[in-house]
Fold:
Amino acid sequence: MPSPVAHSIIGLSTVLGWLIPAGQTPRSLLAAAWNYRLALLGAVLLANMPDIDYLIGIPLGNLNVGHHLHVHSIGWVFLVAIAAWIILRRRYPGSALGLFVLLILLIGGHLLADVLTADCSYPRGMMLFWPFSDSFFYWPDVTVFPNLSKDSFANLFSLHNFRAVLFEALVTLPLLVLVLLRKCLQCPPNAEVDRENSG
Ligand SMILES: [Zn+2]
Structure:
């Protein structure tokens, strides 16, 4: 699995792409992002939510213990999305269905990033299809992110992990930049309506 750096950037890209209207200037983009600062903070938390299972391994000094089990599954994604939807639905400005889709994308995006990560610890992969199956799903042919060493606190701060996190940032930051650029290059919603009205 990638580090919180990749998960956070993917989560921020998702929620910025979803919430911020098109037709921004660089300055208005910053103002819009500031207006959505609580949503962005929530997006980072939700995008990292499945890694709550690290709490099992922290006292044991090995973050692999208890990792990639039930909370890295489609069942967990739906449970957290439903709980978050109940809490947020009255504050969300868009449709109830839209909020649910956004939550699924945010939390499910974590599992997708994990699927695309090399896993060198046994059992490889995660219980992706729980509650339908307890089997571990691993797809070694399609890996984007490198493995992180997490079997001791010393390895956690190793040069290998520093390089791996740097690589994650190089892969995911362009995604964030593309999302923001698109917001500046698209027509604002009103302009599209005006064009339709003018024939
Ligand atoms: Zn994970």
The first helix runs from residue 4 to 19. The pocket of zinc ion is lined by residues 1, 50-51, 72, 110, 114 (CB under 6 Å). The chain has one domain: 4-197. The two ends are 51 Å apart (CA to CA).
